[in-house]
Amino acid sequence: MFASVLALAFAAQPAAGPVTGAQLAEACRGRSGWSDPAPPARIAPNAFYVGTCGISAILIPTPRGHVLIDGATAEAAPHIAANISRLGYRVRDVRYLLVSHEHVDHVGGIAELKRLTGARLVARAEARAVLESGRTDPADPQAGTIPDFEGAAVDQLIRDGGTIRIGSVVLTAHATPGHTPGGTSWSWRTCAQANCHTIVYADSISAVGPDSYRFAEHPARVAPFRTSFAKVAALRCDLLITPHPGASNLFARMAGEAPLRDRNACRAYAEAGRERLDGRLAQERGR
Ligand SMILES: [Zn+2]
Hints:
Helices cover 32% and strands 19% of the residues. The chain is an alpha/beta fold and 287 residues long. Residues 7-11 have low confidence and may be disordered.
């Protein structure tokens, strides 16, 4: 009887649809936790924010099935799925799960989202071992400072410059290692009538680690950052989205408080990453 009442309650609840960018910004004001629930909102005709207040997850819907980029935390996974439903899309119609980088805050929910969607997990080879084991690479500067997570099998490997085609959408993978070896940025085109622009989901390019870690002593870890800064800066980029929404002021831009589209955004993001790394190296020299 209780179950049938629940079923009725769900049946009576049509998909509520996206909130506005201003409503999303308001819902997350003062909340930026990795798992703090946020309502779904539209970024572009084929890009919806379905993540949490602190971590991005992006749904790219197409009539041939959908793509989800990033899965936040295990705690957030059911909420991401609920956001997809709330937009009126079937969770089981998500065909591909793509990821930015192999840290718990972006892929901790991937195992659960694979179960909920039945989608194929696509990643670069460099991310595979961590994604499948759920154990942060011991050589990672953040090892020991972030929790492990439930691993998930990678179903398909993709190379730098490789593409995922679904419906009329083509997503291109850009290897942007540094923050992690498997760091990947993604780009795709979005069009409203004849007006098209390129969205870049640019991965984290920040040098992060405890004070005890000295990047200066790991030149092999610093070099990929330099390559990735140049690469991100050179991407065709009309609309920047980042795995941490705050890193690109995303909610305020979606709320109309700053330009949502900015052809200089990827260059500025890369420059901020470069300044952070150089600042960190200078600080290490002073210790
Ligand atoms: Zn990270």
